[in-house]
Amino acid sequence: MFYKDDRLALFIDGSNLHAAAKSLGFDIDYKLLRQEFERRGKLTRAYYYTALLESEEYSPIRPLIDWLTYNGFAIVTKPAREYTDSMGRRRIKGNMDVELTVDALQLAPHLDHAVVFSGDGDLRPMIEALQRQGVRVSVVSTLRSQPPMIADELRRQADNFIELDALRDIIGRPPREPREPEADALAEP
């Protein structure tokens, strides 16, 4: 599905990829991830999307964001919203679907292949729009978690589904222990 002369871009939904890898019991090594897709084609862009809590003095994701910035990733962030759910638990909300979609559609005329790291079914119309512009789309997520992290409609729309667990030996590393339980809510390293 990958051709060496393909103009390729990565669109990484940070929290979605983090949750999928965590459910499979490993962390993503972003240096290895970038190298793997540089081998698969001509990597034009690697985008990483995440919401950040502005209320916290230190964010556990900040070191990752800094590293990605200095290592060739285009970082797209927006403020996350913090709320308390009906059970009294602290929750974080920061959906990046619109930002990811806008970037993918703007870059489409310069791409042969888009790789979307997300299982979010809300991205199905974006994939369909990319395909109408002649861009092949691969989706990276997992069916092997309970429940599966990829929406069925997203997997069906994509030209190619890549099982994240199959990439474990290529882009994975053993998970780190979280510093504090609440930090895990937004942590994506």
List the helices and strands and how they pair.
Elements: E1 7-13, H1 14-24, E2 27-28, H2 30-40, E3 42-52, H3 62-70, E4 74-79, E5 81-84, E6 90-93, H4 97-107, E7 113-117, H5 124-132, E8 136-141, H6 152-157, E9 160-163, H7 168-171, E10 172-173
Notes on the structure:
The chain is an alpha/beta fold and 189 residues long. It has one domain (7-81, 93-171): 5'-nuclease (Rossmann fold). 32% of the residues lie in helices and 27% in strands. It has 7 helices and 10 strands. It has helices at residues 14-24, 30-40, 62-70, 97-107, 124-132, 152-157, 168-171; strands at residues 7-13, 27-28, 42-52, 74-79, 81-84, 90-93, 113-117, 136-141, 160-163, 172-173. The strands form 3 sheets. Strands 4-3-1-7-8-9 form a 6-stranded parallel beta sheet, sandwiched between helices. Helix 3 (62-70) links the parallel strand 3 and strand 4. It is globular. Mean pLDDT is 90; it is low at 180-189.
